[in-house]
Amino acid sequence: MDNGKNGCSFLDKVLNIVKQERASNTPLIRFKHPKDLEAILDLDVTIGVDDEKLEQCVREVLKYSVKTDKSIFRNQLYGGTDPYGLSGAWIAEAFNTSQYTFEVAPAFTLIELKMLRHILNLVGIPNGDGIFSPGGSLSMLYGLVAARYKAFPEVKMKGMRALPEVVVFTSEDSHYSIKKAAHWLGFGTESVKVVKTNENGQMVVKDLEEMILMEINSGRYPLFVNATAGTTVLGAIDNLEIVADICKKYAVWMHVDACWGGSLLLSQKHRSKLRGIEKADSISWNPHKMTGAPLQCSVFLVREKGLLHEANSAAAQYLFQQDKFYDVSYDTGDKSVQCGRKIDAFKLWMMWKARGDSGLCQLTDHVMKTAEFCMETVARRPGFRLVSEVLQCPNVCFWYIPRFMREKDENENWWALIHKITPKIKELLTMSSQLMVAYSPLRNHKNFFRLAFTFHPKLEEAHVLDMLLAIEECGEKVTMAML
Amino acid sequence: MDNGKNGCSFLDKVLNIVKQERASNTPLIRFKHPKDLEAILDLDVTIGVDDEKLEQCVREVLKYSVKTDKSIFRNQLYGGTDPYGLSGAWIAEAFNTSQYTFEVAPAFTLIELKMLRHILNLVGIPNGDGIFSPGGSLSMLYGLVAARYKAFPEVKMKGMRALPEVVVFTSEDSHYSIKKAAHWLGFGTESVKVVKTNENGQMVVKDLEEMILMEINSGRYPLFVNATAGTTVLGAIDNLEIVADICKKYAVWMHVDACWGGSLLLSQKHRSKLRGIEKADSISWNPHKMTGAPLQCSVFLVREKGLLHEANSAAAQYLFQQDKFYDVSYDTGDKSVQCGRKIDAFKLWMMWKARGDSGLCQLTDHVMKTAEFCMETVARRPGFRLVSEVLQCPNVCFWYIPRFMREKDENENWWALIHKITPKIKELLTMSSQLMVAYSPLRNHKNFFRLAFTFHPKLEEAHVLDMLLAIEECGEKVTMAML
After folding, report:
1. Is the N or the C terminus of chain B less surrounded, counting Cβ atoms within 10 Å?
2. Is A80 contained in some domain?
């Protein structure tokens, strides 16, 4: 290919642009309000521009983009990427193909199968099956579809109208994707029965059993329990062993949403927190979260081999011909609800190949050690108060209580003020580019902060102390301004 | 960051690896059967390896991967990528973030909105809304969900059991994703009513109207017509204007699956083929197909502003807080069924910014010219026979009839032999790395070839002639071996 308008020369510039725009001295964020940013950026595409101008526009976009690879990006459950994973993502993009058939993705198909096999062994379901999906919410859909098809195979042809009234269970701290899934799949959100959590965010399993019984007595069919291994906010892990017992007793499908906490399975030390996961009927795990695979990298696993294919196949004649010249059982696309499907397994394979089981184990242990340090520090630091004192996943949740509010009567007004101050502190932290941190209310808890930790970049204790200091400083500045 | 086991130095190697493994002298494919390829590749990840060994393993994987960027890759409706698009994909991966909130993706959010606006103008629905989705099949799900919610908002809470019996319509040549969608969403595949197509692959609109009336008379609710602008095999475009009239008459939602043919809208000359698309209620288009954005780049559009949000929102408190310090209407994530969502708009923006409307117009005209040349050549070349003689999208479908079969009685056995020989020719073409071409049966047609053309790499007439020659040569070789 020639250069110039063919754009090939632009590819040569990408690495430099990325390196320069992510350089260590660039701020985490240069926040601009939407309308202001619209006025700054030259986004119109009507008239083409030359490479020089394009580079300028791209750099401007990146200047105002968040540098999620910095240690002070703690806004979400993802963050910096594993450089091996990023290398894999780049290569997969360059070798642009779809995961559906062996003929167009021979090596990538084997890699997806190998990674699924390795992960199935890791979770303790060696004979299961799985697929990479475009995110945890889609994995939730896969789980519900599999459970429904297993219980009522007629649903595929006849739809939900042919089924009895079906209910699914999830904890109040679980991810909202189950509600979206219940809507999309035609269950309706009312079919989602929400089980209370204890103070540490774990499903109250006694309530689960009672609720299942109640639903059965009301003539409804309990289809699916969504246990969570790593809730979004507190990082809580439900008691999977007891959930498994209950599911077995009432013949309910057990799904484990381990999108966040699944990464703990990589650690010899911490994997016991997910004990019972090996009894699940289906599991989702997002290596694009804690583990640092570039977005998207999401795994859906299912115990019963063949079920994914049976449930989802449509046997398209133009794609999954049975008269091909090779073993078409390697055409895995008909297990998927997607047609074209990105090569998300390759980046994970590269990370894993580079680090091996032990390398990933070390990163997991380190991330948990960092979170432990953070929790211990928060526990004894004046002005900080933990929301939950049990470290399950590497989430540390706490309120910052400004000096002038300490040792006051913690009545409704006091909490209302905390609720207001927390987002204000976050605003100041963001505006000053010191830290991007999550905040959230939860159940009866007013707005609090969540510091969650991920594999990349690797943090030291000093980083954590800096973050807490920044929160403290901004917390006091904010209250000064309010007084 | 330091190098070595942190993997940053590996990123520096990626461009070279990609360039070398995609060099012009590498074969399109080095086909190995699955078991043989498994034996060659070192895929196990249990033990980590050093960078040198990793590079070796990666190169081996790429050696046996298909070079989809070559002109002789005509196996699917995607192919080579636009280098600007690939640059955009690499940058988006490096700036790893999710499209859900403005705070973590400020510039990327504005870019998605800008691209949606530009594309909405292009299709003629300037006041509509949209979202980038992970592929055309997901866009089909979005379409059905939007239509269902619009007609029966109670479905969100109550599910499909609260609805009357609902049916949807699609042509027999349309994409199989509507069947998967009907299963997943709880309609059941029986609710998909298949309308016949004419010899050029277009929906017989007279039948559509009759079928709608019949369903109404049987007490079922006609919800959704899926018109296709560019069927997978023949590239047929349904008569969108008439479909729109019928949909309006019976108050049925009109969806246009323009995943493949939507790219023709980029051309002043060819856009009239999609006349009527501006009357649709929803549209899907995959710029990762003809236009050459790297996989995945898929757009779902809807006429009614606000509907996507209303239908899909779950208002997660931890993510879409309403007490943020900026205008949260820029948090677009709750329009989506996904939570984390890749920055798929950025690569498309880069391509468009580089080329402008006129650059993309030229590429569209060129691809259609190439297809026209191919069709004309096939029409008059001995031994080739067109399946459809009308060029709609840049798909050219034909049988190759080996010499010994020409001017014979074309009875059932003759066609059975053609059906068998076609995949054999494909096998030989693949094994000899001369050409990867699609084949398929369709309706009563026995297996035939499909040459479909995409923007990248830009083909000349000589490329097309080489492909036809390769088919001819392999066609004769195969029959020699069979005789």
Report:
1. C
2. no
